[in-house]
Amino acid sequence: MVRVRMADVAARAGVSTATVSMVLSGGKGKRISPETQQRVREAAEAVGYRTNSVARSLRTQQTRMVGLISDTIASTPYAGRMLAGANDVAREQGHLVVLVDTERDVEAERLALHALTGQQVDALIYACMWHRVVEVPSGLPEDAVLLDCAPATGARAAVVPDERAGGAAAVRELVAAGHRRIAFLDAEERFGLVASRLRYEGYLQVLAEAGIEPDPALHVRAEPVAGGGREAAGRLLDLSAERRPTAMFCFNDRMAMGAYAAAHRRELSIPDDLSIVGYDDQQLIAAELDPPLTTIALPHYEMGRWAMEVALGVRQADPAVPHLMPCPIIRRASVGPPPAQFGD
Amino acid sequence: MVRVRMADVAARAGVSTATVSMVLSGGKGKRISPETQQRVREAAEAVGYRTNSVARSLRTQQTRMVGLISDTIASTPYAGRMLAGANDVAREQGHLVVLVDTERDVEAERLALHALTGQQVDALIYACMWHRVVEVPSGLPEDAVLLDCAPATGARAAVVPDERAGGAAAVRELVAAGHRRIAFLDAEERFGLVASRLRYEGYLQVLAEAGIEPDPALHVRAEPVAGGGREAAGRLLDLSAERRPTAMFCFNDRMAMGAYAAAHRRELSIPDDLSIVGYDDQQLIAAELDPPLTTIALPHYEMGRWAMEVALGVRQADPAVPHLMPCPIIRRASVGPPPAQFGD
DNA sequence: CCGGCTCGTTTAATCGATTAACTGGAGGTT
DNA sequence: AACCTCCAGTTAATCGATTAAACGAGCCGG
Description:
2 copies of one chain form a homodimer.
Chain A: H1 6-13, H2 17-24, H3 34-47, H4 53-60, E1 65-70, H5 79-92, E2 96-101, H6 106-118, E3 123-134, E4 145-151, E5 158-161, H7 163-176, E6 182-187, H8 194-209, E7 219-222, H9 226-237, E8 247-250, H10 253-265, E9 275-280, E10 294-297, H11 300-311, E11 323-325, E12 329-330
Chain A binds a DNA duplex through residues 3, 5-7, 15-22, 25, 29-33, 36, 51-61.
């Protein structure tokens, strides 16, 4: 590939490189006569000139690149939406995203940080692929933005889903449908999920608002996968009629998928006999269950956007406290009124 | 952030920048005395020097960055595995990945190409998030690698899944279990899926090998989602006993999920009454169905690796024909022998 | 004692664009 | 006529590293 330099354009247009630069890099500074501009542009077009951003970056000290360090691109299907949000904003702002996946390896993280700062990126985003509290790696610049994680110590611009409000919305949906015996199929504590505690808080809050005494027997824990959900839902459905829940709020859509299986196995129909709300709005699951699952969406795309907007200075952020991104409820068909014998 | 230049290190070590450069950029060319090397390294460490790769890139004409243009990061959960494969190789080779998502917009594609070539990336990968034939965008360098797509015209290094072999493996698994009436739940033609045709070819090939006359009634098409699978599977299961299939090969795991639902609704047990094989090994679906789904995995990670290896010259590729990456079968629990009355 | 050879290091050109400072000439003012 | 002001563009320094070529000191052989 032949590289065309600015000098080549200048020569062809019969002007200096300075003139070419001024014409091509927008109308700042001195004004160049329209004829000359025209001539330069034609020359550039003719020789197929493309400005070399490495050289420009060296001179201007900005690369129009943003580093995105993430712990794992691979293992979750959420990643895409978050990247998409970040990427969209980057493009809108004329920036490129440089992606590094550290696979949760501290050494890899250090190297990535070196590589990116060496690369003179204009901004940095540190992303987790599921909501958690992180020890900020040393060497992470002050103005880096945390995406889907909150700093264990210190103040940093950060954005996380508003899990508490999401949990509340889920339960509120069930309360509104008339349910009073609402179970929470939670993740086991050993997974140490921030989301687990917060969604539970939302659950309790709405029960309190509705004047429903929480029944500890309805807060069950299992592994947050389909199998765990099936097993936990099974236990609940095998309770005596008066103790059995008429609705379940599941920690995630996979558990909800398991709850569907448990209900079907017992010939219970959703939502006639049992209402279910999930969490995550997992692509290819939630919408495809039968009936489609009412669930709370994680705002990955929006968080990705937010982080990139803050990183590029398009939006201000208060570093003192993580920004809470709302988790909208996605109403589908898994919630209905409780069965008649439980109605009012 | 104070920027430390090589000159600062040189000053502190009492040598020239040339010496610092030679010490720091590996032991090529002239040899520097061990004492000086030591001194330089200490100085660099002391002032916290980090080489400015923009400057280096300008001089050496290589950026150690690889551009990855993809049509949609967002809409599929596969993307992650492909990125992960590419990213891993890039890291092994000391390169960074610059990601651009064009969202299938031709204009965005053109801009991305400009941005990346302007950025002087050392290599380019053009990725699709599902297997298809693409019109290679004009301006894509000759040595760019195509990932999960084949060029409509011209010869390019490219890698795609071996769908035909995958389809064959799926059907062979069923034949081996003793099935003779094997349905193919295909995607509708209007989606124009390359994979559809190839998997069907694999299906036919294995039937032929096994001496089974293909029954056109067992090749049904539907929308390739759970609902389509449910409906198509339902139609097949409602056939008379002697026409009904004992096994189904589904175009993808979502359709398989629908087939499960159809079977359950008819009180058929998997795999006792019906065997099912899917395709994609979709995370969070295949393994979580009950029983876990036997399926064919799309080798996204491996294709990502392959593309990056070719892009970086670690591996040679024949541009004349796309490289076919094997799709391994993932055996779980949805395949068994046909029901007794159909056995031999 | 001098030319030649190593060895370790420095000098200086270079990559390609940006931009502050300057220039030369047209036109205006007093 | 002398001086100022614009205008349209040029000159040259600069960003920070790499590297071919040059350099000087020490050593050896004749």
